[in-house]
Amino acid sequence: MSPVDPDLLSIEHLSVVIRRPGREVAALSDVSLRVGRGEVVGLVGESGGGKSMVARSIVGLLPGGSHATGAVRFEGDDVLRMDDDALRRHRGHGAAICFQNPRGALSPTRTVGRQLTDRLTTHQRLTEAEARRAAEEQFAAVGIRSPRRRLGAYPHELSGGMAQRVMISLATGCAPGLLIADEPTTGLDVTLTREILRRFRHAADTDGRGVLLISHDLASIADVCDRVVVLYAGTVVESGPAARVLGRPAHPYTRALLRSVPDVDGRAVVATPGAMPLLKAAPHDCPFAPRCAHATAECTAERPPVSRVPGAADDWTLACFHPRTDELAFAEPAETPGRATAAERAVLEVDDAHVVYRSRFGKGGHAALRGVSLRVAAGETLGVVGESGCGKSTLAKLLLGLVSPARGDVRVAGSRMSDLRGGELRRLRTRVQMVFQDPIGSLSPRRTVADAIAEPLRALGLPAARRAERVEAVADRLKIDRSMLARRPHELSGGQAQRVCVARALAGEPDVLVFDEPTSALDVTVQAQILEVIADVVRDPARGSVFISHDLATVRGFADRVIVLYLGRIVEEGPVDEVFGNPRHPYTRALLSSAPSLGDGFSGPKVTLTEDLDDTDAAAPGCPLAARCPFADDRCRTEEQELRPYGNTRAACRRVPEIPDLLKGSDIRV
Amino acid sequence: MRIVRFVVRRLLQLIPVLLGVVVLTFLLVRVLPGDPIRTILGPNATPEDAAAARARYGLDQPIVKQFLDYLGGLVTGDLGTSIQSGTSVGAEIGLRIGPTFELVVLALAVALVVAVLLGVWSARHADRAGDHGVRLTALVGNSMPEFWLGLVLILVGYSVLGWFPAPSGRVDPDTNLTPLTGADLLDAALTLNGPAFGSALAHLILPVATLSIVVVAPLLRSVRASALEVLHSEPYVAATAHGLRGRTLLRGYLLRATLARLPSLAALVFGTSIGSTVLVEYVFSWQGFGQWALRGLLYRDYPVVQASVLVIAFCYVVVFLIADVAQAVLDPRVQI
Predict the structure, then answer these.
(1) How confident is the model at residue A150 (pLDDT cuts 50, 70, 90)?
(2) Are A91 and B243 an interchain contact pair (Cβ–Cβ within 8 Å)?
(3) B88 inside domain
């Protein structure tokens, strides 16, 4: 690592209050942190903690009505007191932000190449022709295939991962001293997340830039950060070397965060009740005290000062009267009861289903599912994992009867969906219920919570009195306060709204519950609360559940069996511990290898896939993974692979018996 | 190419649309109360005279036969004969459409340029005095009826200041302009007739000003609103945060994204301004298409009404086609 110069960015006692008519928010209260050259600093915490506000204050882009005190020193100059000219030079060249949601942050009416050359000509004083050449090199450097062609592309023509790469190239194209990455991996797959984060580490190591990595995803950023700063309700609660803060945190909030994260090694999640407060003024007590198990009268009377962690190095500090020094205790891995599923009643059967999305004018189309068969018994939970674009969402739609299979069929509780019409079909549909990814978006804004929960009951034609009875029963079961039933979705927090969505799905006593990434839009501690709710719901012996997620760790937590999808095909299926502990298919192994983990993670030999996911591989003859698989040989590229049994699991790979030997070879990138 | 294919497909769609318009107007004008023959013969005509006239214009035939004759004429480009003037409708349109087209196109062009410049400026100075001034002025202009506005402009520009020619005719007859298209300014330019060009331009200024003041307000509001939206959008904030220069921001990140929303509204405004021309032409004695169509309607001149509705429908469809193409060119996300 290059020598650390502490003077690149130093935020000193920064407080930001946003005043708007009728509303006052203390977004940041007395925040101090620093980033040196060549250093990667992680800024972590949940939404509302003030992470983005820190980023915005570094480039002098605070929202209207905000009032900042303290200092944001960049190479000695205070950003808060710069004039327009100095600020324009500082933005981009001094500190450049990589925005969250790169697709939204790229201008839709300008080619990405032009957007990059705009930055290059502005900050590096290149001519148009030089900038074009440099842009091509930049694109290649961030791993964009055929960069020359991509220069002429518009943002809507790019995939999410590609857009993120372009965004990184735009930020680094300004040649900044400090690179700020605002949630750079949200919505990206595990394999891509690692790759993108590696780019930031690279920027710090080879170009000597400082990097401020803002994220709620502790596990992902754990191994790229040098230091970590934890924010809670606009205050810094803990900061120090990444290995220490994330390995043996001293602040109860950091501990709560870490315990809320599911891990691929299967340990159980411990939920912390409550939610982050929205402060109206700088706090005079510990903002975490109401949620803290160790809080005493002292904590609510006075704000704990920032001090060194007892017996630790200088740069590990925290703001807590009762620092924890013991080992971070995790609950034992959740018991996955070895339920005998074969003999039980099947509530959901899918037999060789193909789904094709036709293009608008008839010819051609895109095959989203290619021959998927599965069976869910009552009381069983089936996990579905895979990268985005692998057909997970299509599978959810298929189970709900929202798309009809081009071939094959779906049977719910023994009735074939394609046989039914009209009222019968409608009643059958109420037997399958879904919990969506975006909790607030999936509730009608004009309906009260009680109305929303009663939706499936209305579809069944229940009289109003019975509906009210059922709604209250379900609300009680999910610990939804009765007073909340009269509210509307915009008055709910994400966690409350997701509880309502689970209640709605449960109201009609369905046979099958489908969870489509139910926690990925939620904050870490809220996520843990919802996972507890879901874990309770899926234990009902009367119904089966399908849990879809790109997050392997979450699936491991409570699925009994798991299927791994790749480009519309099942490549591996089996009991969850078997698939996660001893993956047979190279794709499963690669997914597990790149899954972020704060614990031991995936313990077996690791595999990295060579390229980004490419849809065109789906149509190629032979194994669809062949282009990315390190073990592929000529037969893989020509022979169609079918699921074949290996022990308890089935995998669609002919080389499974040879893989343990191949893994010993030195040609695998780890 | 994609755009060419799109245009051809849309032009083919034009055929059923226009056929529907032909059928509807053919029936509607005949359902309207009033009789074209009565209006040309005067009060003293005998029933025999009326029957003879009716036979001359083919109005004694069964309605299906009349329609088929009319349709047959359309296919060969014959729009029929005006009952009032007895001349060919096609020739009259040829004479009348040029001046009106010139008026509407120029007015809309002026309105668009003004709306974009002021709208973007207004958005960049949102909620300051200048912004409020621009919006108020546009609103006042929009609230005035076009005929009254035209009269005020004539009063000020001609009677008081004497800067502009009298509101009678479109060009000074002494300039010996050879008519080609009927659009005098264009004709003068094509025949390199300098004096006629000046005269036509001078005659155009007041009516164009009237019409554009009337239509500029909705365009300006829309430009301002979408420019504001772009200014607060994530891509623009991102470009600002990367420290791009003001000029790059304006040209590369604000203008095109703002304009992308404009074409469909501009097409709608074009439609309303065709309606507005009737009154403006009246005030300025423009002798254009609007006046001609209105007179045809008042006298129940069947062929004239049918032809004018057909022309207006055709213009509408073509203008919306142009708007769709413009939108696709401006916004790469729009697939055509």
Answers:
(1) confident
(2) yes
(3) no
Torsion of CA A162, A164, A170, A171, to 10 degrees: -150
Give the whole-angstrom CA distance, residue A659 versus residue A648. Answer: 17
Task: Answer whether A344's CB lies under 8 Å from A379's CB.
Answer: yes
Range in A361-365, A423-427, B136-140, B291-295 the model is least confident about = A361-365
Q: Cβ contacts (< 8 Å) between B253 and chain A: which residues?
A: 107, 110
Predicted confidence band of residue A3 (pLDDT cuts 50, 70, 90): very low
Note whether A101 contacts B234, CB cutoff 8 Å: yes
Residues of B in contact with A58 (CB under 8 A): none
Rounded to the nearest angstrom, the gap between the alpha carbon of residue B122 and the centroid of all alpha carbons in its chain is 27
CB < 8 Å from A in window 221-260 of B: 234-245, 248, 252-253, 256-257, 260
User: Could you say which residues from 289 to 318 on chain A have a Cβ atom under 8 Å away from some Cβ of chain B?
Assistant: none
Of A61, A97, A109, the CB nearest to B332: A109
A110 and B237 in contact by Cβ < 8 A? no
**CB contact B270 to A (< 8 Å):** no
Look at residue B10 and tell me if it is in a domain.
no
Average pLDDT over residues A135-148: 86
Question: Is B53 part of a structural domain of the chain?
Answer: no
The chain B residue lying nearest A154, using CA atoms, is B332
Kindly determine whether residue A108 and residue B235, on different chains, have CB atoms separated by under 8 Å.
Answer: yes
User: CB distance B241–A90 less than 8 Å?
Assistant: no
Amino acid of residue A663: L
Is pLDDT at A340 greater than 60 in this prediction?
A: no
For residue A110, give the chain B residue with the closest CA: B252
B122 lies in some domain: yes
Pick from B1, B183, B189: which is nearest to B99 by CA?
A: B183
- Tell the residue number behind the tokens 């808060």, with chain if given: A80
| B134, B122 contact by CB (below 8 A) | yes
Q: Which of B201, B130, B241 is nearest to A94 (CA)?
A: B241
Is some CB atom of chain B closer than 8 A to the CB atom of A65?
no
Which residues have CB under 8 Å from A210's CB, separation 6+?
A: A8, A9, A35, A36, A37, A38, A39, A41, A177, A178, A179, A204
Residue with tokens 């004479």: B95
User: How far, in Å, CA of A284 to CA of A303, rounded?
Assistant: 5
Which CATH number is B268's domain given? 1.10.3720.10
Which residue is listed with tokens 């891990």? A263
Strands lying side by side in the sheet with A77-78: A23-35, A9-20, A66-74, A77-78
State which residue of chain B sits closest to A92, comparing Cα positions: B242
Inspect the interface and report whether the beta carbons of A156 and B235 lie closer than 8 Å. no
Buried (b) or exposed (e) across B208-244, using 16+ Cβ within 10 A?
A: bbbbbbbbbbbbbbbbbebbbebbebbbbbbbbbbbb
CA angle, residues A529, A533, A537, in degrees to nearest 5 = 165
Chains A & B: contacts with CB separation below 8 Å: 80
pLDDT-derived band at B283, boundaries 50, 70, 90: confident
Sheet holding A346-358, edge to edge: A365-377, A346-358, A407-412, A415-416
Q: Does A114 touch chain B (CB under 8 A)?
A: yes
Residue A234 has pLDDT above 60, yes or no: yes
Q: Which domain holds residue B191?
A: 95-298
Strand order in the sheet with A40-44: A95-98, A178-182, A210-215, A40-44, A227-232, A235-241, A317-318, A307-308
* Amino acid occupying residue A660: P
Query: Using the beta-carbon criterion (under 8 Å), do A104 and B248 form an inter-chain contact?
Result: no
* Residue A108 touches partner B, C-beta closer than 8 Å: yes
What was the pLDDT predicted at A89?
87
Task: Say how many domains are in chain B.
Answer: 1
Asked if A106 lies within 8 A of B235 by C-beta distance, the reply is yes
Q: Which domains does chain A have, with CATH numbers?
A: 9-225 (3.40.50.300), 346-431+510-664 (3.40.50.300)
